[in-house]
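Could you join me in thinking about how sequence relates to backbone shape in a protein? To get us started, please write out a protein record for me. Would you write everything just below, so we can both look at the same thing?
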Amino acid sequence: MRQRGLPFAAVLLGAALLQLAIARSPASQSAPQYVGSEACKDCHQEEWGAFQTNPHHRAEMDAHVIADHTGCESCHGPGSLHVAAGGDTSDAGFATIRNLRRASADEVVRTCRGCHSGGEQVYWDQSSHARNGVACTQCHSIHHPRSDADAALLKTHDVNNLCISCHKEKRTAMARSAHMPLREGSMTCADCHNPHGAPSEHMIRAATTNDLCYKCHADKRGPFLWDHAPVRENCLNCHQPHGSNNDKVLASRRPYLCQRCHIVTRHPSVSYDARDLASNRMFNRSCNNCHSQIHGSNHPSGRYFLR
């Protein structure tokens, strides 16, 4: 019986010694306390200067936004032991401050979501960025933003350049002849996508792709007496939203775009197969020369979307 009890007694003794060592360690003798942002000023002058024009500093001045623990310590944690260390990296208290540059993506997100958990960030956990381990600091720079003051402290000058730094295939699409007015500055990626998450696929700012397109292209919404089925299903059946080398950002040139569905029509197929330039379907707008109301028609005789 004594031999069986020896391992158990050894485990208890080891646990007791560990607790004693922790209790005597300098870091455990007192928990770090909040000391205020002024304590950070002397050592971190560059960050302090940038913070004065930061939206987080405005929240610090307005107690109605954040009631307590504002300023530097709202992100970096209570800093009394870090301040007491006086810059001595060998002091155990020096490492008690939260360094978000070295933190994991999960820790960074938890820190930011301590305040930013509503509004556009409410769907963050279901977003593509969250599932791929993207941290808030990969897009935002709290102390050294390069964007305008009203552009959410971005690490680049504008939203589009930030997005294409990762989504490089979209950079190529945007450079094509037909494209959304992103290059001209009339819109940004965030006009269609919510980078912090959305209940719909591809984080678009609408329930469906068509609902998103209708926000600008309201004339295509309908309802129509005669609906064009692929249009009603999804605008992307015919269009490439990020850019195309075909007019109207079409997925392919006409009439070949139409022939994806209309393989057999009442028209002679020779004009398509032989690519006869004399055909009225091989110049100008091709099929749309006659079928101009291709998104839908309200004319009593508009079954074939004619003029």
Observations:
- The first strand starts at residue 226 and ends at 227.
- The chain has 14 helices and two strands.
- The mean pLDDT is 84.
- Strands lie at 226-227, 296-297.
